[in-house]
Amino acid sequence: MSLNQIASSSRSKLLRPLTSISSSSSSSLRRSFSSSSDDKTITVETSIPFTAHNCDPPSRTVETTPKELMSFFKDMALMRRMEIAADSLYKSKLIRGFCHLYDGQEAVAVGMEAAITKKDCIITAYRDHCIYLGRGGTLVEAFAELMGRKAGCSKGKGGSMHFYKKDSGFYGGHGIVGAQVPLGIGLSFAQKYSKDGTVTFAMYGDGAANQGQLFEALNMAALWDLPAILVCENNHYGMGTAEWRAAKSPAYYKRGDYVPGLKVDGMDAFAVKQACKFAKEHVLQKGPIILEMDTYRYHGHSMSDPGSTYRTRDEISGVRQERDPVERIRKLVLSHDLATEKELKDIEKEIRKEVDDAIAQAKESPMPEPAELFTNVYVKGFGVEAYGADRKEVRAVLP
Ligand SMILES: Cc1ncc(C[n+]2csc(CCOP(=O)(O)OP(=O)(O)O)c2C)c(N)n1
Ligand SMILES: [Mg+2]
């Protein structure tokens, strides 16, 4: 097979029709968001079955409610809008430095949150804005952080790659590829040690999946039966490198060898929810598991990458048309008569306003004080001396 043939066969695997949405309602559901029908059970089927390695896969049948379906739609539409707005802010130079957008991958963030609690931990790489929002972070704190303002979730000192929200179990936001995975295993060690019944989701990309530190950390997690879920967000590219050029075996769910794994349609929020629920139960009894989320990023790798030099525009628009996570939920909402197309459009309009208001508010926040350069950097009490670039003169002695 030529490289071009390999590329086009891997491209065709990216496309999977939305037509497999099948669902049934256990009762006749009418539109009334605030009534008791909010909690009626709706049964949906995941887009495709799970593929399992070293374990029995969970069922394709997932239970939901009108309330959850509507919240999936709203949460994903909000994430999508936030990322589009971040793109504009970057282009108008209000966001500087690195910025990696998550649009296309929203079902992973939303489905994962639906299966866990804020006592469970999540740690991820630099594509972190939507994970932060899912953990309960606010739009104002997110935009303020992106624009380097005091009101940001990391006080404006971290920027796009370093969102953090420890009070609801979000441990960042990391810029060094793969480095968050051993940290995540450390979190799961603490969880096992304190026997609190919580778990850690350590997220990484298909590019990071080839790194050695991941296997070292996984070995320890398996050896000590730690409650660690390794979530490989396979968006099929590491910067401009397609997975087939970087990985001898791109079956990332199998790469743990002795560690079980599941391949999940990461564009289907219900498949993600089902897989994460299954994984949480699994790791609390049996030790780590790998979830490979088959997903896609619409934007380029970061703002300096137009995203169209190493893949075709047809590939991107094909995924948008056939697998888009927001459109999948829109179809489910409509097929269950939970809202009309116009009502969903109105929700999207409100979301647009919510995002614009948050940006305006974030812009009001000042930049951090210059003295903040020295806080949260060193442990206090060592009297560390700071020198200028000439290294001759002591400029400050830190407390
Ligand atoms: C240790 C290290 N090597 C290289 C880089 C540069 N780099 C940043 S992102 C990236 C690609 C990672 O791709 P993947 O893991 O698939 O994540 P994605 O960006 O697709 O979410 C690389 C090579 C880095 N930040 N850290
Ligand atoms: Mg990737």
From TrEMBL:
* Keywords associated with the record: Oxidoreductase, Pyruvate, Thiamine pyrophosphate
Q: What is its EC number?
A: 1.2.4.1
Give the superkingdom in one word: Eukaryota
Q: Which cofactor does it need?
A: thiamine diphosphate
| Stored Gene3D superfamilies | 3.40.50.970
Q: Does the keyword Oxidoreductase apply?
A: yes
- Catalyzes what? N(6)-[(R)-lipoyl]-L-lysyl-[protein] + pyruvate + H(+) = N(6)-[(R)-S(8)-acetyldihydrolipoyl]-L-lysyl-[protein] + CO2
Example GO biological process: pyruvate decarboxylation to acetyl-CoA
Q: Which GO terms describe its molecular function?
A: pyruvate dehydrogenase (acetyl-transferring) activity
**Keyword set includes Oxidoreductase:** yes
- Dehydrogenase E1 component domain residues are 75-370
Coiled-coil spans in chain: none
Q: Which InterPro entries match?
A: DH_E1, PDH_E1_Alpha_Subunit, Pyrv_DH_E1_asu_subgrp-y, THDP-binding
Which PANTHER family does the record cross-reference, listed alphabetically?
A: PYRUVATE DEHYDROGENASE E1 COMPONENT SUBUNIT ALPHA, PYRUVATE DEHYDROGENASE E1 COMPONENT, ALPHA SUBUNIT BACTERIAL AND ORGANELLAR
Q: How does it associate, per the subunit comment?
A: Tetramer of 2 alpha and 2 beta subunits.
The entry's function note states:
The pyruvate dehydrogenase complex catalyzes the overall conversion of pyruvate to acetyl-CoA and CO(2). It contains multiple copies of three enzymatic components: pyruvate dehydrogenase (E1), dihydrolipoamide acetyltransferase (E2) and lipoamide dehydrogenase (E3).
Extract the NCBIfam families matched here: PDH_E1_alph_y (TIGR03182)
Task: Please state what the protein is called.
Answer: Pyruvate dehydrogenase E1 component subunit alpha
Q: What is the species of this protein?
A: Macleaya cordata (Five-seeded plume-poppy)
